[in-house]
Amino acid sequence: MILQLVRARRRQVLIDVDTQKDFLLAEGKACIRNHRRVLGHIRRVMAWARVRNIPIISIAEVHPDNNGESEFCCCIDGTEGQRKVRYTLVSNRVCFPADGHTDLPRDMLRQYRQVILHKRCVDPFDEPRIDRLLSEMRANEFLLIGAAAEGAVKAMALGLLQRGKRVTVVTDAVGSHNKREAKLALRKMEAKGAKLVETKRVAGVSHLRHVGACDCESCRGLTRKSSIGLREVS
Ligand SMILES: [Zn+2]
Fold this sequence. Notes:
Layout: E1 10-17, H1 21-24, H2 35-51, E2 56-61, E3 93-96, H3 108-111, E4 114-119, H4 128-136, E5 139-147, H5 152-162, E6 167-175, H6 179-191, E7 195-197, H7 199-203, H8 225-233
Parallel strand pairs: 1-2, 1-5, 2-4, 3-4, 5-6, 6-7
The protein binds zinc ion.
Residues 26, 35-36, 214, 216, 218-219 line the site of zinc ion.
């Protein structure tokens, strides 16, 4: 049976990919480049989606701990790094584990503002529940933010495009580990039909001076050459 949620044709849906502490914070196990700038834009887009009542589908990576011997370096179940950055969460949310099942409650998107789905892999479409939800969900536009451009965001964009969805990538709210690979990935997404825009086109400009969430000197606005110099001599 087709889910209730697919009947209502929604204008826009925000897809937030792997916006977890391990990827976005300086202390994270696999922090992206330019995390301060990307965090600021993610915060802006999330605030915009909240105000506009735009449904948020969040994908989050999780790997089992295996008694401390996980083959993965980040997003280990139960660790702080696996958790989402606080402003990527809205209070009215529901979360689904990555268990290989495809069940979803009928009125899910009417009941909840945010649906969080876990995945055990890079490509979100390798998880049956995520594949089902995104294949069946209709919207005029799927907006993508998160990390990483050359990894899960690329897989998300290409998977949606293959399923005939209209995809817009908010490029400055997408982080990457490798600048060159990220550039190639964005080019590929665009070649396959994705629209590339900047945060200000979608959500306007933020007046926030600090991005919050991250405690590094850069995010707290403390990175002046003099202060770093002083620290080095002391
Ligand atoms: Zn930081």
